[in-house]
Amino acid sequence: MPRVGVATGVPMAEVARPRDEFFYLSQLLSRRVVSQDGERVGRLIDLGCAANEAFPRVLTYYVRPGLLAPVTLAVPAPAFTDVPSETLRLAVPTDGLQTSPRRLPEEILLRKEILDKQIVDTDGARVVRVNDVHMLRTRGSEVRVVHVDIGFPGIVRRLGWERPLDRILRPVGLRARGFAEERLLSWRYVVPLRSGSLSQDLRLNVAQHQLAQLHPAELAEIMEELDRFERPAILDALDVPKAAQTLAELSPELQRLLLEALDVRRASVLLSTMAPDEAADVLEELPERLRKRLVSALPAADAATVTDLLSHEPDSAGSVMNPEVFTVAPGTTVTQVWEQLRTGPDEFVRGYSVVVVDEQRRLRGVVSLADLIRADGSRPAEQVMDTDPVSVRPGDPMGDVAELFDRFNLLSLPIVDPDGLLRGVITVDDVVSWLREGEGREGGLT
Amino acid sequence: MRQWLEGRWRRLVVLGAIVGPGIITANLDNDAGGITTYSLAGAIYGYRLLWTVIPVALALFVVQEMSSRLGVVTGKGLADLMREQFGVKAIFYLMVALLLTNWGNTMAEFAGLAAALEIIHVPRLVSVPIGAVFVWWLVTWGTYRAVEKAFLMASAFYVAYVISGIMAKPDWGNVLVSTVTPSFDMNLPFVVMVVGIVGTTIAPWMQFYQQAAVVEKGISTRNLREARLDVAIGSLMAVLVVWFILIACGATLHKAGIPIRNAADAAHALAPLAGRYAALLFGFGLFNASLFAAAILPLSTAYSVCEGMGWERGIDKKLQEAPWFYGIYTALIALGAGAILVPGVPLLKVLYLSQVANGILLPAVLLFMLILANRRDIMGEHVNSKTFNVVAWVLVGSLIVMTLFLTVATLLGRA
User: Fold this and answer.
1) Gap between the Cα atoms of A177 and B8, Å rounded
2) How far does the CA of residue B252 sit from the closest CA of chain A (Å)?
3) Which end of chain B is more exposed for a tag (fewer CB within 10 A), N or C?
4) CA-based nearest residue in chain A for residue B82
5) Per the CB < 8 Å rule, is A158 touching B218?
6) B220–A261 C-beta distance less than 8 A
């Protein structure tokens, strides 16, 4: 398990003194709030923080006057100079309190939206539950969120067992805290999932920046942990290419759930951003009605390609291949090919080889990227290509294709129809995915 | 007409996709403990307790419908929702109670398994370890879908009790009259029996299990009606089994005045009265129910506890990724099965502890559920309706009174 951080906090007993800087949200909540003259005002129920800051500053303290009181009082920071003391004494006159607080647009509520909730930990690329929030009071009496506590000691502290345990363990020279490592996660790596009231833009802004660090496969794993409402929220926070890749990585079941929930236009944008074979993979697993609806929403050209792919037998080469292939004419010089590879889209290079076709798109040969790098720049492609490459038909079973990859140590392989026309390529990653899916099928009980 | 047919057909297809959680949960509910209680009730009181199936069905539906709806609307499991809304303290102590209760329940399942196989002369020293390993293997190595299918199929085996009931050749007129005529005695054993029937039918783990299954399936609010129907069918199936067990034992054991101590006794005693096959079927039903519940109970418990505490969970996780999950799951099976085998383990004390934990747990869970299902900020337009609330509060209120009664009776050593 990744080490998230070690507490810099001080033991409980000392925290109560006002001079200390670090403390936990749970130590502050439910504290009694009194006016300047020491009169009872209520109890602290929540803290509103500036979500747009790297380490959110407390903007508002929310106080409930009585247990069943219907109103909440809002006290703008800095309301208290002595946080986190046993009793919180207001630094402002009581008549300065707002009785019907309006939340600031950038405010995130620590108790309602963070404490005990799940968040995405972008450092560990997983979903974790917040046991407590670690806070800091700076000398200027600003209070900020610095960490969230995701470790076992956090639970023990909130259950109120830390002190009793210490009392029992002290005679034997042990401390409750020593048994499990405190795990604090820096706020920089936290993406809140329950921030319903933040303005849409701000929420996306915060999430987008941090989620961008994660690989689509990691994002897909995180999505598996989330609920029906959180998943689309994460997908919305990603830019289109990343969202498309993430969608492609998800399990068929989640793909179905998400595509059902997304509106058709957004779904079609995501699907047409994927490589056609990936899109076909996704669509293949969907219930027929949903699949038809989505295919008909795709741009005409994409729809045709995908429909063609879907028409192949499952587990045939045609159903796995990518029909978008980087091809060159036999007379193209190596230098020209280099140029096209350098300036072309990423997918060109990902194919591991360049396919040479004539005007009718008949397969003439294949040049591997390795041969291209070594070749003399002035020579035409037809002189450096392998003129008799291994190829398969769209209807060939994938089992045979996988065997060919193994036997000839292939990285990619062209698919050719009976007339010799190029239909697509299969790359080694397609084969690996196909094999892994098969493993899943066989691994089950059925 | 065609359109109407198509509409019907579509509804049926949708239902097919939704069906599962409610039916599995309700059937799971007739576990070893349940079958024992119903057999005893039938053998001791004959048809006199048949009327209880109607209120029990209603209560089962109301409680399970709420948990299904909570799952559909929030997309969260019950433990997750409680942790978020009521905080870590509430959930921690609830989970401790759940662990204790379900340890006792798991033990009861393995005891049921042992008893069922002893009918065909398999000693428990063989059956229990094999059962435990099988259950552990099934869940850790099978995929969830396959496991679910296996269990849905297992639900069908409950028909064994229906057949046993019919083979017992009951007086159907008498049975029907007794079903709609409540009869009650104000003596302690009778009350304890009634409470026992209700208590074994509505168990706290069911709400956690069903809500998790609903969430796992990703049922959306559009399909709330189908989800409700799923729960209704499940509740009916569950009480139908109860009804037939009461009939089978009432028509034979009660009439002949044969005293029994447990469900396996019932199976034995049925042979001369209802035929050898009825007895075997009865035993098979017990075997199936015990195995089914022995697999699901520890799994559901481990899942709920990890969900509430925020630990990694799920059978698709590796052992290193989810140590708590597999730890709790394995420990429950090992301790549940082990307690049956190791001589000198105070079985009764554990069951007693489990019953007391249940007595604290069930009221708390039901109250929390009612609060959640009435919160507009969580449920939106799907909060409990007024009529539903009246029925729910009355039923939950009586369930709580009964559970507390049983707990006190247990504490006083009378149950």
Assistant:
1) 62
2) 41
3) N
4) A116
5) no
6) yes
Between the alpha carbon of residue A107 and those of residues A111, A141, A201, A418, the distances in Å are 12, 19, 13, 64
CB B57 within 8 A of CB B281: no
Tokens of A355: 């396919």
> Between B75, B88, B146, which is nearest A116 by CB?
B88
Contact B220 A444 (CB under 8 A): no
A446: nearest CB among B80, B146, B215: B146
**Prior bond to A241 cis, omega within 30?**
no
Ranking A316-325, A364-373, B29-38, B261-270 by mean pLDDT, the lowest is B261-270
Q: Look at strands A73-76 and A132-137 and give their pairing.
A: unpaired
Put simply, the answer to whether B218 touches A257 (Cβ < 8 Å) is yes
CA torsion A372-A378-A379-A384 (nearest 10°) is: -10
CB contact under 8 A, B75 and A227: yes
Q: DSSP of B86-132, one letter per residue?
A: HHHHHHHHHHHHHHHHHHHHHHHHHHHHHHHHHHTT--HHHHHHHHH
Closest by Cβ to B89, choosing from A150, A159, A230 = A159
C-alpha count within 13 angstroms, C-beta hemisphere, residue A167: 6
Distance from CA of B100 to the nearest CA of A (A): 19
Residue of chain A nearest B314, judged by CA positions: A225
Q: Indicate the length of chain A as a whole number.
A: 446
Rounded Cα gap, residues A212 and A204, in angstroms: 11
Q: Which residue of A has its CA nearest to B87?
A: A116
**Residue among A282, A284, A261, A256 nearest A271 (CA):** A282
pLDDT at residue A201 in the model: 58
Phi, psi of A362 (to 5 degrees): -85, 140
Q: Is B76 on the interface with A (CB under 8 A)?
A: yes
Q: Which of B315, B317, B313, B296 is nearest to B305 (CA)?
A: B313
Probe site for chain B from A114, A121, A129 (most B CB atoms < 10 A): A129
Q: Kindly give the residue spans of alpha helices, DSSP state H, lying in A51-150.
A: 110-113
Radius of gyration over every alpha carbon of chain B, rounded to an integer in angstroms: 21
Give the pLDDT score at A133: 93
Contact of B242 with B198, CB cutoff 8 Å: no
Distance from CA of A63 to the nearest CA of B (A): 18
In degrees, rounded to 5, the angle at the alpha carbon of residue A392 between the alpha carbons of residues A390 and A398 is: 115
pLDDT tens, chain A, 446 aa long: 343 444 444 444 444 444 557 888 988 888 888 887 778 888 888 888 888 888 888 888 888 887 776 667 777 777 666 666 777 777 777 776 777 667 777 888 899 889 998 888 888 888 889 999 998 887 767 888 999 998 888 888 888 887 787 778 777 777 666 666 778 888 888 888 865 555 555 555 666 677 877 888 888 888 888 887 788 878 887 888 888 989 988 888 888 888 888 888 888 889 888 888 888 888 888 888 888 888 888 888 888 888 878 878 778 888 888 888 888 999 899 999 888 888 887 777 666 888 999 988 899 999 988 888 888 888 998 888 888 888 899 889 888 999 999 998 888 899 998 888 898 899 888 898 888 876 644 433 32
Contact list, B150 vs chain A (CB under 8 Å): 445
B7 close contact with A: CB closer than 8 A:
no
* Nearest-by-CA chain B residue for A115: B84
Residues B286-339 pLDDT 10s: 888 888 888 888 988 999 999 998 888 877 777 888 889 999 999 999 998 988
Strands A32-34 and A87-89, bridge-based pairing: parallel
* Cα B247 from Cα B273, distance rounded (Å): 13
By the 10 Å C-beta count (0-12 exposed, 13-18 middle, 19+ buried), B349 is classed as exposed
Q: Extract the tokens encoding A38.
A: 């020491």
